[in-house]
Design a protein that fits this description.
mainly alpha, 196 residues
């Protein structure tokens, strides 16, 4: 039995929506290589993609415990912790730590842009619009076609009383994703404020 082949096959099966087969292969990869952060992380990604948030959380925690330097596992654990409910300040600090480790370890790619975007979400929940804007600008410097980041940057700029900056960012978000009702709503609010 080749754990690498099972890991790859399980990940591909997960991406194509074949849940049971994916879990079979990924659990076998974990059984064959129990100290593999990569296998635990892949299992967590599969759990997450099929909506099993708690199982994903457990797998990502195991991946991080096995290899704290795994930037992708840190990112996935941080993303998983942000899902679902409002977090206490103590929980936000834990999430921020995972995302900061992910940011330090990732190359400037889509994962790094996502890590900066999620870090901005933490700053926003902590009421720090200025640092949220910094993180969103970093995300957009990596991935300029990130409509959610443009929308959140518009909101951060609105909170910083930069109406022109908010409108520019929100217009960009709507241009990138015309179906984004949140960005449309935010943009409409800013237009109305300017006309008062």
């Amino acid at each position: 039995d080749d754990p690498d082949a099972r890991l790859l096959l399980g990940s591909l099966l997960s991406e194509t929506g074949q849940r049971d087969e994916a879990f079979l292969q990924l659990n076998e990869a974990v059984r064959l290589r129990p100290r593999s952060a990569e296998a635990q992380n892949a299992l967590g990604e599969a759990y997450s993609s099929f909506g099993f948030t708690q199982q994903a959380h457990q797998a990502f925690e195991k991946a991080v415990a096995l290899n704290p330097d795994s930037a992708v596992a840190q990112l996935n654990l941080g993303r998983n912790l942000l899902q679902g409910h409002e977090l206490s300040n103590a929980e936000l600090i834990v999430v921020a730590g995972h995302l900061d480790r992910a940011i330090r370890g990732l190359k400037p790619d889509a994962d790094a842009a996502t890590a900066h975007y999620l870090r901005a979400k933490v700053y926003t929940q902590q009421g720090n619009a200025r640092q949220a804007a910094v993180q969103l600008q970093q995300a957009l410097s990596i991935r300029a076609d990130f409509p959610e980041a443009w929308s959140d940057l518009g909101e951060a700029r609105r909170r910083l009383l930069d109406s022109a900056g908010a409108i520019a960012a929100l217009e960009r978000a709507v241009k990138l994703n015309a179906a984004d009702s949140v960005a449309q709503y935010r943009l409409g609010e800013e237009y109305l404020k300017q006309n008062q």
